[in-house]
Write a structure and sequence with these properties.
Blueprint: E1 8-11, H1 19-30, E2 35-38, E3 43-48, H2 52-62, E4 71-73, H3 77-83, E5 84-85, H4 89-98, E6 103-109, E7 123-127, H5 132-141, E8 145-146, H6 161-168, E9 174-177, E10 188-191, E11 198-201, H7 207-213, E12 246-251, H8 254-270, E13 275-279, H9 284-287, E14 294-296, H10 303-319, E15 324-328, H11 336-346, E16 351-353
Parallel strand pairs: 1-9, 2-9, 4-7, 6-10, 12-15, 12-16, 13-14, 13-15
Antiparallel strand pairs: 2-3, 3-8, 4-8, 5-6, 6-7, 10-11
Helix pairs in contact: 1-5
The protein binds threonylcarbamoyladenylate (TXA) and magnesium ion (MG).
Magnesium ion binds near residues 148, 149 and 157.
Length: about 350
């Protein structure tokens, strides 16, 4: 159930921010309404994090289950004390190095933050975004803002205002359009609420960088299958960040991956399937003659670019009407670790290793 709006999109230049647009958005947030806005990772769907009714609107607009907690966005260290308590020293050290930026910390929740924001957990996820529009908005409304990615639940996250509109048109009054986001994948989430720091979600802050500051960071496989019986921890569902089409992920040496993509494309076409390819620039010479909808995410040697284009690429392929996406895997260093995580999820775990 959700309210109907005629959704407005206001263009805002991140380098010359229109104060009137920000004021309008801040007024909506103070009034308990929803506003979508750009961050450096993906677009967020924001509401007052201290207002349970406002936060409930986020879940309704996204069709998000109440078991999946939200990330609270702040713009100052002073605001941190409003939303979190018992902040460990490690958190302060990480904040000094990584904020503002794509790192979310899970801390003990302050009483003022309503249950619904954290899906009833005694913790709260907090991040300070680096995007100038997000910062201007947070500063203007003077509230901590709960904001998940501004997509329908389990869809790919939005990296443009158009993606937000495609998923949520009519479900919120306002979208601030600051152009495509620069990182393209969500923030890295680290849980600091228990004894040992634990990676909850890889993202825009790379594991290598984090490990310099958290040598004992616990990194466990987080590909929980929904059919495994017990309810997985929030946000750990494998089916997440998904395109509409089925996706198969192929991993292995480049030549073997290309040969397999060619063979599987022919097989899928023979089966009457509409198939699309999600590849890298280097694959084009081998694969372009297949003549099926093809999206390249960029060069294998430029993983930040692959990350930036990943969600748009999935959406673009979906828009061509394919029912099967054959995708290549990427190296797992740097941003590659988070890229791999999202592709495995988009594939719902269907990874084919070739050699
Ligand atoms: O980059 C980002 O983090 C973006 C932008 C908008 O800031 N936000 C984002 O939010 O990706 P969302 O809702 O799509 O992801 C929130 C995830 C949850 O699914 C869950 O995995 C984790 O954050 N999370 C939030 N609060 C938590 C908590 N208290 N305990 C454990 N995990 C939590
Ligand atoms: Mg999300």
């Amino acid at each position: 159930m959700h309210q109907q709006f005629s959704t407005r999109v206001i263009l805002v230049n991140p380098l010359a921010i229109d104060a009137q647009a920000i004021d309008e958005a801040a007024a909506l947030l103070r009034d308990g309404q929803l506003v979508a806005f750009p961050t450096e990772t993906v677009y967020g769907l924001g509401a007052n994090a201290l207002d349970a009714v406002a936060a409930a609107r986020i879940f309704a607009a996204k069709d998000r289950p109440a078991s999946d907690p939200l990330i609270v966005h702040i713009w100052s260290i002073e605001q941190l004390a409003q939303v979190a308590i018992e902040i460990p020293n490690l958190a302060h050290r990480l904040i000094e190095v990584f904020w503002p930026g794509p790192l979310t910390l899970i801390l003990r929740r302050a009483e003022r933050v309503p249950d619904i924001v954290s899906a009833g957990q005694p913790t709260v996820a907090v991040r300070m975004p680096a995007h100038p529009i997000a910062q201007a908005l947070l500063r203007a409304c003077e509230l901590p803002i709960a904001a998940p990615s501004a997509n329908r639940f389990a869809h790919s996250s939005p990296t443009t205002a158009q993606h937000v509109l495609d998923d949520l048109d009519g479900r919120l009054p306002l979208i601030l359009d600051g152009g495509p986001t620069s990182i393209g994948l969500e923030s890295t989430i680290v849980d600091l609420s228990s004894d040992r720091p634990r990676l909850v979600r890889p993202g825009g802050t790379t594991l290598d960088t984090l490990r310099q500051f958290i040598p004992d960071l616990e990194v466990t496989s987080r590909y929980a299958q929904p059919e495994a019986g017990a309810m997985p921890a929030p946000g750990m569902l494998l089916k997440h960040y998904s395109p509409r089409a089925d996706l198969l992920l192929f991993d292995g040496p480049d030549e073997a991956v290309r040969a397999t993509l060619i063979r599987r494309t022919h097989e899928a076409l023979a089966d009457g399937k509409r198939v699309g390819l999600l590849i890298a620039d280097e694959d084009f010479p081998a694969l372009s003659s297949l003549n099926v909808p093809t999206v390249s995410l960029g060069s294998l040697t430029d993983l930040p670019q692959v990350a930036r284009r990943l969600y748009a690429g999935l959406r673009d392929l979906d828009a061509t009407g394919v029912d099967l996406i054959l995708a290549r895997a990427y190296p797992s260093d740097g941003m590659g670790f988070a890229i791999r995580d999202r592709l495995i999820r988009a594939a719902e775990g269907k990874v084919v290793t070739v050699n």
